[in-house]
Q: What sequence folds into this?
């Protein structure tokens, strides 16, 4: 009795291999597209994270700026703004020649460590304007020191301020002598703050050659690239007194009432087969404190 053999013919095997190749090729193409899509979305998230992180850092300083005298300078290119940022607050106890005695609220030691004193400002209670005082040597002989006449703040005699020194969470406020070039004219019991000069600028990145970086410079302190990379379209726009839309051309610094942050962040690398990196554009507006009228 003849026994039949079971198996595949050569044409059947060839057809099966062709079908498997087509399915495998389609599956591999699907995987590659999915991987490319995932990489694109990941790069987009990276760019968005860069823009948002930069926004948070800059806004922390800009929200402290006063509308009267808080802007030191702006660049016509819209790539640089220099601001006077308060970092410690208190009250004026009195003045003696070129010395202003102040009672300051407690401050976090970390804030003191990263701040560089450049001067103080006191408020006119009638107009709300601040007068900024810049001593000759703010980081040397004119730095704030413990007051030689603390009773001017805490005493109850005639002409003394009768201000109690405050303690919060184990931290105690200070009574300081602030130097100025001549009499400051600060009225007793007027609000006062110490300020530092900070410059934000968009310029060539060191971390990503060919791209822009956001740089932060504390005058008398560190100069650091805090975030990158950015596209060349990143920069600042300015709100002018009397206007409710930002302008690319900066007005006179006395008229700046707020700033638009245009943060066009770029992903550090491009997706395969993509000619340009992903971008994320975040625009944030911030208006300065104590704005009395527009």
A:
């Amino acid at each position: 009795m003849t026994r039949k053999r079971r198996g595949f013919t050569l044409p059947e095997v060839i057809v099966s291999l062709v079908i498997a190749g087509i399915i495998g090729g389609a599956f591999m193409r699907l995987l590659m597209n999915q991987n490319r899509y995932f990489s694109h979305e990941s790069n987009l998230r990276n760019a968005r994270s860069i823009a948002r992180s930069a926004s948070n850092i800059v806004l922390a300083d800009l929200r402290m700026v006063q509308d009267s005298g808080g802007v030191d300078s702006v660049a016509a290119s819209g790539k640089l703004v220099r601001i006077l940022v308060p970092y410690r607050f208190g009250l004026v106890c009195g003045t003696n020649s070129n010395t202003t005695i102040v009672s300051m609220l407690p401050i976090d030691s970390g804030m003191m460590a990263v701040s560089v004193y450049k001067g103080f400002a006191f408020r006119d209670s009638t107009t709300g304007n601040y007068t900024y005082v810049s001593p000759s040597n703010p980081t040397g002989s004119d730095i704030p020191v413990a007051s030689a006449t603390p009773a001017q703040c805490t005493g109850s005699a005639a002409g003394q301020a009768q201000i109690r020194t405050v303690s919060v969470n184990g931290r105690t406020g200070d009574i300081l002598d602030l130097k100025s070039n001549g009499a400051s004219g600060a009225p007793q019991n007027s609000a006062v703050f110490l300020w530092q000069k900070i410059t934000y600028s968009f310029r060539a990145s060191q971390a990503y050659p060919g791209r822009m970086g956001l740089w932060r410079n504390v005058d008398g302190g560190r100069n650091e690239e805090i975030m990158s990379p950015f596209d060349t379209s990143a920069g600042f726009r300015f709100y002018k007194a009397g206007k409710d839309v930002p302008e690319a051309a900066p007005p006179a610094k006395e008229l700046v009432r707020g700033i638009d942050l245009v943060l066009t962040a770029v992903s550090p690398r491009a997706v395969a087969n993509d000619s340009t990196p992903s971008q994320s554009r975040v625009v944030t507006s911030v208006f300065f404190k104590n704005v009395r009228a527009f």
Remarks:
- The chain has two domains: 42-80+198-287, 82-196.
- The radius of gyration is 31 Å.
- The chain is about 20% helix and 35% strand.
